[in-house]
UniProtKB/TrEMBL annotation:
The keyword Oxidoreductase applies. Belongs to the oxygen-dependent FAD-linked oxidoreductase family. This is FAD-binding PCMH-type domain-containing protein. PROSITE patterns: FAD_PCMH (PS51387).
Length: 578
């Protein structure tokens, strides 16, 4: 176990006396590695730098103090190499944890939890650092960095501990293992693992704990549907093997309960799928289309999506493209004839506007991923991007009235300044999977996960995305988040009262998150499980299970989010949920 300070953390003792000039004099007397500094600035926006460094995060909202713009390191992310702070500017800590522990085994977590209990230290947990929601960092916290919990194992058959039934082929994947490595390893064993789009997102980390949606999810389900066992250290310091037969309540909570609320995961065992050919559709418009053309295109996507969902297609739709995948046998057995017919109307539209279309059957998932997806998934970090999201029920796509409501929403957010050309939405809900597993009762219930049941009766995971400047003022941030939250309110009105949103990709400042993430019944059950395994709320994060709006939003622990949250509430006349 290694305990370190990721950035300078100045602790002033009693009677400490110093000036800024004295710090500068000290700095001039020690050796500075200019080459290393230049390399960091050159790679400032690269995901590899940010995932492999404990004090860096993919999204700036996890590094800065959103409520105090002076409390951050003012590095200009609009140029490469990144611009260094101007003369006399102070590089402040922001929300970057003051200390971190590199977790390499369960006993590291046990020691950290013991220390936190004894000294009342607040913890945060960071894996690869992709979180949008400000949960993987925290001002003054001790960070548990799980990125180096690597390792993958394949088994052709697997019986979870304490169970009797053989699950079949599985992969046991360390919490920090990136999905890119998992996809390659799975293919080497003639298998496919359901995973995230980006190769640097950990397949057994926060992606999975928040539900785990992926482009093959419409047919194969959520990550939470496919996980069969966890190795975890709970807040009492005990390392546990958790599955449907051992600690089944905790197993339920980990399958969608989100974040590190219930413990620190060391690895997860995933049910994997035999490798087969996959149909692929990739239809693009030119990037310079007008807003009106984008709205026409989106209208076409809205009209086509329900039938695509019934056929097993899933992937992404956007203001200038649709990229979809289908492993269903009907669409891979005829050399792509049915697949091309499914996308004929969008192909015609794209070609008539100078676009391109590629609809074909390819030998396997890894071939498609390497050939078509990896060149497009060089995820850039160092931006302050946020979004609002809502799961759109399939019933909205079934009537002209419902489709009209969706298009009215797009026109209304365009008036708020969101360009429809920049529209992007995952189509990754377990739409077909749910019907295959439970054809009689799919609309009435979920599949035993702690996710909101809305995941299992929705078609689109509709998002509105924007970003703030690296040097934005507090007034700019309040204005942006107010507009974002206003769009969230409109999304809620569109989706209806029984819809939900994704724990990992919602608006961090939305109200009513409890029902939105879980549904009321699941939320109440999760609270009881939290009280059982973490009665003192040692593992806490922003709007996770155990978070209390009225108590935590104004607290010092969450000042960097809370002050901003309260001002947005005032602007929109909203109130805390609990």
């Amino acid at each position: 176990m290694k305990v370190s300070v990721p950035f300078a953390s100045f602790l002033a003792g009693a009677g400490a006396s110093y000036t800024s000039q004295q710090w500068q004099t000290l700095n001039a007397t020690v050796e500075v590695d200019d080459a290393k500094c230049t390399a960091v600035r050159q790679d400032w926006k690269k995901g590899q730098l940010r995932t492999n460094f404990p004090g860096a995060f993919m999204n700036l909202q996890s590094e800065v103090c959103l409520s105090e713009p002076v409390d951050q390191c003012l590095v200009d992310n609009t140029i490469i190499p990144a611009g260094i702070p101007t003369n006399n500017a102070t590089c402040n800590q922001g929300s970057v944890p003051s200390y971190y522990i590199e977790i390499t085994k369960g006993s590291d977590v046990t020691a950290a939890l013991k220390f936190a209990r004894e000294h009342q230290v607040t913890l945060s947990v960071k894996n690869a650092g992709h979180d949008y929601m400000t949960r993987n960092s925290g001002k003054g916290t001790l960070s548990l960095w799980t990125h180096n919990l690597q390792g993958i194992e394949y088994r052709g058959s697997f019986v979870p501990k304490g169970c009797k039934a053989d699950i079949g082929r599985v992969m046991i994947v360390g919490a920090g293992t990136p999905s890119g490595d998992a996809h390659i390893f799975a293919d080497e064993h003639d298998s496919v693992i359901l995973g995230p789009y980006s190769p640097s997102v950990a397949v057994s980390g926060g992606w999975l704990l928040g539900g785990g949606h992926g482009v093959l999810g419409p047919v194969y389900g959520m990550g939470a549907d496919r996980v069969v066992e966890f190795q975890i250290v709970t807040p009492d310091g005990k390392e546990r093997t958790v599955n449907a037969c051992q600690d089944p309540d905790l197993f339920f909570a980990l399958r969608g309960g989100g974040g590190s609320s219930f413990g620190v995961v060391l690895n997860a065992t995933h049910s994997v799928i035999p490798r087969e050919p996959i149909a692929f559709a990739d239809v693009h418009l030119p990037s310079n289309i007008s807003s009106e053309t984008a709205l026409e295109w989106i209208k076409l996507l809205v009209h086509e999506s329900l039938e695509w969902g019934r056929q097993g297609w899933g992937g992404h739709v956007a203001g200038t493209y649709v990229t979809h995948f289908n492993p269903v046998s009907d669409f891979i057995s005829d050399n792509g004839t049915k697949a091309r017919a499914s996308f004929q109307r969008v192909t015609d539209f794209a070609l008539s506007h100078g676009g391109t279309s590629n609809v074909a059957v390819y030998p396997n998932w890894l071939y498609i991923w390497n050939t078509f997806l990896l060149p497009l998934t060089t995820m850039q970090g160092g931006n302050m991007g946020m979004g609002s999201s809502r799961l759109l029920p399939d019933e909205l796509f079934a009537t002209e009235e419902g489709k009209g409501k969706i298009m009215s929403y797009f026109r209304s957010i365009a008036e708020l300044g969101f360009n429809p050309v920049n529209f992007y939405t995952p189509v990754t809900t377990p739409f077909t999977y749910q019907r295959l597993q439970d054809p009689e009762g799919f609309a009435a219930k979920g599949m035993g996960t702690s996710l909101t049941p809305a995941w299992y009766r929705s078609l689109w995971h509709l998002q509105t995305i924007g970003s703030m400047a690296w040097n934005s003022s507090y007034e700019d941030r309040v204005s942006f988040v107010t507009k974002l939250t206003n769009s969230t309110v409109q999304l809620e009105a569109l989706a209806g009262p029984n819809a939900g949103s994704h724990f990992n990709e919602a608006n961090p400042f939305m109200t009513g998150w409890q029902e939105s993430y879980y549904g009321r019944e699941n939320y109440e059950r999760l609270l009881k499980i939290k009280a059982k395994y973490d009665p003192k709320n040692i593992l806490t994060c922003w709007k996770c299970i155990g978070f209390k709006d009225k108590q935590d939003i104004p607290s010092s622990r969450y000042h960097c989010q809370g002050k901003l949250q309260q001002d947005v509430y005032k602007n929109l006349g909203l109130k805390p949920s609990s």
